[in-house]
């Protein structure tokens, strides 16, 4: 684990700390009782698991040391740093190429343990054990990661990474492959998309960052231990309890209480879940789309701050309590009580899971709509006041996300020290009806953008209810947001900061045709809706192309000067505030009479 163990060195197993500078024997006596044997073994593995159990299995870390590392009681270096990479992410495909080799084993003879010189000095330091055996060698872990795109599957991409690594000649060996992704050739990944992190016991001039650099280091690994293995480091150690040495004055002070396996498992799962939730929050906050929506980002950052405070508090309490339990200064029941309070915490509840799931769903939907709007050249812009100040711009049409500033009761009631309590109801503005409405408005907005060629009309995207600094008391925008959840198309006319929620006029409907003769036809329309500002009626003989247009103000219109015994096509168009996008009725066909 990157720690400088030596034979005869004292160790406090309660805190998992080395006590350098003191040994049970002087240097000369120690060297006489050391036996050395060769221990050659080399293993490789390739795996994509993100579970801490698998990581500690690779490093052969026992339960109590694993917990101590997770809580920060023990600091690892070298290959051991691989284990401290606790934050998990669903936004990255991850593959680890592991290398393990051993060279020699050193141990103290058993008769040496009865002939000690400085036992009382060690007992005063709080030591509980002495190092009697060390297995030397080196471990190395090359962690390859690729940021996932929105349309990429994590397991599938891990399979693609596996194929890419295994296809490299210097890695095409008998690697124990545990990658869970599907091994398909259908997708490829470029080398410059792969980021590498190296955790190893080898001394390197520079750490590799790319796939090519990592594989170059991987190729040189057999030579990095030196010709005689002189650069090997302690990989595994054997400890002997001071309480079993006959000359121990206070053997009870050196006793260690091991936590039960069930409690270690429970504790490990609790820490893993804290890291999992933190990873999900980091994924949401770091998403590029999140940065576009300030209100949404602020809520996530608020939750992250409260959760991080809670996590730090519970981890500190655990780190303080565990050494006391192992040294018989506290009981396991104290740990069980602390875990029970954690189990009841809102931060560890299904409500927290639901909150995260809702935020992820909302972000997925926001990202999708934002992508569609960018496809027609419209980007999110919160500097609306700049557009409204431009005298050359007559109208501003804004696709506005209206539900991102809604208050979050769960978040507002959540204290960063909450351990117990009933969580507020978890809500989301996202419903099927709202998504359907947003889709229609997106299509309408895109049509408006495509049909408008005026330089005096600007199209933008916003996510704020009242972006006008000079008029913070304006409530019109907020009212529109309440009436149109999800999104609405806001229209700012002639530089006004009072927005109008644009609604297209209803599709005109012909209710009747009558009084048909050889030269005229009378048609009746259903009454116009409130969003209609003007209507036109167009008609033409079916066999011709050019339409004749009439501006109409009544629901009943008489078409005159028609040809007798001829079939006419008739349609009506309604226009709203934005007249560049009329809504047109279905075409009806009517034949004029052949009798004068």
Automatic annotation (TrEMBL):
TM annotation in the entry: none
Name listed for the protein in its UniProt record: SNTX thioredoxin-like domain-containing protein
Domain Stonustoxin-like helical: from-to ranges: 270-363
Cleavable signal peptide: none
Organism of this sequence: Astyanax mexicanus (Blind cave fish)
Source taxon at top rank: Eukaryota
Lineage: Eukaryota, Metazoa, Chordata, Craniata, Vertebrata
Residue intervals of the SNTX thioredoxin-like domain: 381-497
